[in-house]
Structure prediction request, 149 residues.
Amino acid sequence: MSRVTQIRTLIALIGGLFSILAFAKPVELDEISRKEVAERIAPIGSVCKEGEECAANVGATVSTTSGPRSGEQIFNQFCTACHTSGLLGAPKKDDKAAWETKLSAAGDFSKLLGNAIGGIGSMPPKGTCMDCSDEEMSNAIEFMSGLKP
Ligand code: HEC
Prediction:
């Protein structure tokens, strides 16, 4: 072996040793980078419920209840399909005489409301507004009939 070859071999060996060391050394994080990693993998938003102590930077809590929908809203979304044209014999919106007849047949407003909630004749239960509360049904009836609860 010539001297040059010997030196090359030595260099290659040392290089190899270094790379083995570099790969074998476990990755160690110091305190600062541990904190950084923890911050980066933390969830983006945390849920803050009403009444709970929350992080100081939470501005407003989202209210889950938005109150009853108006009679107009319910009517336009669910009742208009039948009660605007009188489909299937439904009493029409603002047809006072038709509503008076329905009211006296039912007895009083609460019975009328009960019929609308349970369904009557060709009128499906809750007029297809399955998530309507009794109050919202009442609002819708008041809106289309002019009758007062
Ligand atoms: C699929 C058609 C249809 C839809 C949608 C509908 N109705 Fe009716 N509704 C009728 C028909 C038909 C009648 C008449 C039923 C009868 O007297 O036989 C009626 C009757 C009523 C009555 C009178 C009940 C009584 O005691 O005579 C009320 C109150 C009423 N509807 C409320 C509503 C409300 C509120 C909605 C919307 C949330 C609604 N309806 C949606 C068809 C419908």
In short: The domain at 71-145 is CATH 1.10.760.10 (Cytochrome Bc1 Complex; Chain D, domain 2). Helices lie at 3-24, 31-41, 71-83, 96-106, 109-118, 134-145.
